[in-house]
Amino acid sequence: MNTRLLPLYATLLICIIAYAVCVFQFPMMFSTRVAGNLLTDNAFLGIAAVGMTFVILSGGIDLSVGSVIAFTGVLLAVLITHYGIHPLIAFAIALVITTAFGASMGAVIHYLEVPAFIVTLAGMFLARGMCFVMTTDSIPVNHQFYTYLQGLYYLLPGGGRLTFIGCLMLLIFAFGIVMAHFSKFGSYIYAVGGNRTSAELMGVPVAKTTIGIYAMSGFLSGLAGIVFSLYTSAGYSLAAVGVELDTIAAVVIGGTLLTGGVGYVAGTFIGVIIQGIIQTYIVFDGTLSSWWTKIVVGILLFSFIALQRLLVLLSSKRTATLTKP
Amino acid sequence: MSGPRVTALTKAMPQLLTLVLILFLNYLAFPGFFDIRLQDGRLFGSLIDVLNRGAPVIILAVGMTAVIASRGVDLSVGAVMAVSGAIAATMTVAGYPLPIVILATLGVGLLCGLWNGILVAYFDLQPIVATLILMVAGRGIAQLITEGSIVTFNEPGLIFFGTGSFAGVPMPILIALLLLIVAIAVVRRTALGLLIESIGINRSASNYAGLNSKLLLLVIYAFCGFCAALAGIIIAADIRGADANNAGLWLELDAILAVVVGGTSLFGGRFSILMSALGAVIIQAMNTGILLSGFPPEYNLILKALVIIVILLAQSFSSAGGWAFVKAEFGTKGRKSQ
């Protein structure tokens, strides 16, 4: 069996077990309604997590995700509510800005050789600060187009709703999986994450790839911001605080190595769903506080990192015995 | 003797100039900035305020400097602050005597640091990942301790750590100063600083040289946890309560920023605790200046981001041979694509 796939299987197993435990306690959770809500409620997290997966696969990190989501939300609200711009045009403006923002962070990371951690930290401050400068109020968005998009859903058997934003997340994940495994750019990302120097020597355009990765993360964070804005119908500068941590947790729980080069986009999807299941369980239980989510996610993070460590140790031992004469 | 001192001063020049510039701008925005007066046996004034409000970040920066010098980073200090604040508040409310409360809180901070240290040193995890676990789970644990509410207390002994003063100097400043002196003395009067730098530059080479790098890393992270607990006590004592959600929120980023502003490289190696403290003061002077000048506090974050970018540019250019390097890089890229 391929040891690289083992974390993915482990994640899948935990996801199934977690869902089974939930259904065992609350039979009502086994319904398309819950499944549909799981997708809708975590749509913005999932979309941002796809971008984060690519960043982490390349050996980097993007701390600006949450701030960019809030920035997009506030920008949309200001453009639509205060300036009367049509949402579609506002979406385009927001996506262009966030993509350019991500690309410039990538350029700084590559050309100035500064750790991604500190560059995206500056990006996080900058984006959050821009939110505050635009407005500190929560601005509601009331537009026909928003109502139309929010009312767009496919009724599943059993009364569940597959909403527009839920579908969008699934689409982005499908797109991410295809790009990671069936495109040149995807293999460049894995190559840069595996070993930057050898990737460069092999002729991988490292500069273009790095900038592309962060531009994509910026674009997907912007898209997540649009989804978040549709989800909440408002723009608030303190929204989505700490979402970068949730996305990093989802990526790690999904079996991607934080050292880069190893991991799957599909795993991230399961990571997002596991976090969603924990939250749904807490809602169903009714007596547990929401902070249990943090503790459980912390425990999961630890167990997955420990599992990955163990696998790396085992595989290095095996190669050591293989290479022995 | 004057040789090394002069070079140390020239090295600190950019940071010192920045601080002077910020203080001068503060003076322009608020003419009473440098006024210090003695009232009720305690010093008052904007300058004292900068140091007083900056004390928690200075304390965090001391621990963070050691961690970053060892080529690591500790993301969990904010969460550890929340946990220690929660412990201090709940134990005080439960009626434990002050010394036990303080010892228990500092002990919990040490334990949190040890946990990080074990993960980094013995599990060989990347520091970002290892400390991320506690960063995520820590706030949950803090809320578990305070049972989701903000625990307030009225114990004068504990409050003294946040708002009291000794010989006219506010306690937070005294605590930070004491920690600075002890830390610098321990690190520079013994070989400890050298050893930390050596594992930051090359851990395996240090191992071959006979250094017990695992134990040293454990001590470094435990010390960082201890500093976080100290800062947590001050913050909790200052607001007379423990707020598990907001105590120390994003302070880990401020602490890292202070260390980077102070000139310690994120890639480990040479470090200066005093310069990190200076970095923390610069950050706080900026915060206070914005508040005093009547700008909305929201501009704070943007300014911080700009400062990070400017410092990164300065560090990157001085280490990589300046613009010539960038020109060469862009030049080759241009040729390649043709």
Description:
The complex is a heterodimer of chains A (325) and B (338). With 325 residues, chain A is mostly helical. Chain A has one domain (3-314): ABC transporter involved in vitamin B12 uptake, BtuC. Chain A is 74% helix and 3% strand. Chain A is built from 14 helices and 4 strands. A two-stranded antiparallel ribbon of chain A has the order 1-4. A two-stranded antiparallel sheet of chain A has the order 2-3. Chain A is globular and about 65 Å long. The two termini of chain A are 24 Å apart. With 338 residues, chain B is mainly alpha-helical. Chain B has a single domain (39-297), classed as ABC transporter involved in vitamin B12 uptake, BtuC. Helix content of chain B is 74%, strand content 4%. Chain B contains 15 helices and 6 strands. In chain B, the strands form 3 sheets. Chain B has a two-stranded antiparallel sheet with strand order 1-2. In chain B, a hairpin with a 2-residue loop joins strand 4 and strand 5. The termini of chain B are far apart. Residues 321-326 and 332-338 of chain B have low confidence and may be disordered.
Structural features:
heterodimer, A: 325 residues, mainly alpha, ABC transporter involved in vitamin B12 uptake, BtuC, two-stranded antiparallel sheet, two-stranded antiparallel ribbon, 3% strand, B: 338 residues, 15 helices, 6 strands, disordered C terminus
Query: How confident is the prediction overall: mean pLDDT of chain B?
Result: 84
According to DSSP, the number of beta strands of chain A is 4
Q: What fraction of the residues of chain B are assigned to beta strands by DSSP?
A: under 5%
Main sheet: strands, sense, barrel of chain B? 2 strands, antiparallel
The pLDDT mean of chain A sits at 86
Number of helices of chain A: 14
CATH architecture label name of chain A: Orthogonal Bundle
User: How large is the count of helical segments of chain B?
Assistant: 15
CATH architecture of chain B: Orthogonal Bundle
Low-confidence stretches of chain B: 321-326, 332-338
* CATH class descriptor of chain A: Mainly Alpha
SSE order of chain A:
HHHHHHEHEEHHHHEHHH
> Can you tell me the overall shape of chain B?
globular
Q: Report the structural category of chain B.
A: mainly alpha
The first-to-last residue Cα distance of chain B is 57 Å
Largest sheet of chain A: 2 strands, antiparallel
> How many individual domains of chain A?
1
